[in-house]
Design goal:
By secondary structure, the chain is mainly beta. The chain contains no helices and 12 strands. It starts with a strand and ends with a strand. 20% of the residues are buried.
Length: 127
């Protein structure tokens, strides 16, 4: 797993902008070097209602990056608990068992992108 804290990253001009007077600024959370070679399996905008959690699972060949856009969450990855706030991102590697729980009063919303190494990103639920 890799954690990318949005609050600790500075906004910089987008590469296609005039750096002296940019129209858009970006925070680089991750680059191609953070991902395995493969294909984008999915891009989802998800909502986790306050107090809820999703089932423990892992993916055989797929990395997932979760980007928190609203609320706060706790993720447990291979029994390690990580708190994620708005603007944070986390990269989950294949075979890493993970659970996410919404810990804010509001629903937690996030974007998740899956990158598969080519075997389809099969999901395995863990009891």
């Amino acid at each position: 797993m890799k954690i990318f804290r949005g609050a600790s990253r500075d906004f910089v001009p987008a590469s296609h902008e005039n750096s002296a007077s940019p129209g858009v600024w970006k925070k680089v959370l991750a680059t191609h070097t953070d991902f395995q070679s493969g294909r984008v399996q999915m891009i989802n905008w998800a909502k986790l209602p306050s107090g809820n959690q999703f089932a423990a699972h892992y993916h055989e060949d797929m990395q997932e990056v979760f980007i928190i856009i609203q609320g706060q969450a706790e993720m447990v990855i291979n029994k390690e608990m990580i708190r994620l706030d708005r603007g944070d991102a986390i990269l989950i590697e294949p075979h890493e068992i993970h659970i996410m729980r919404s810990i804010s009063r509001e629903d937690t919303e996030y974007v998740v992108v899956g990158v598969s190494a080519g075997a389809g990103g099969r999901t395995i639920n863990v009891s």
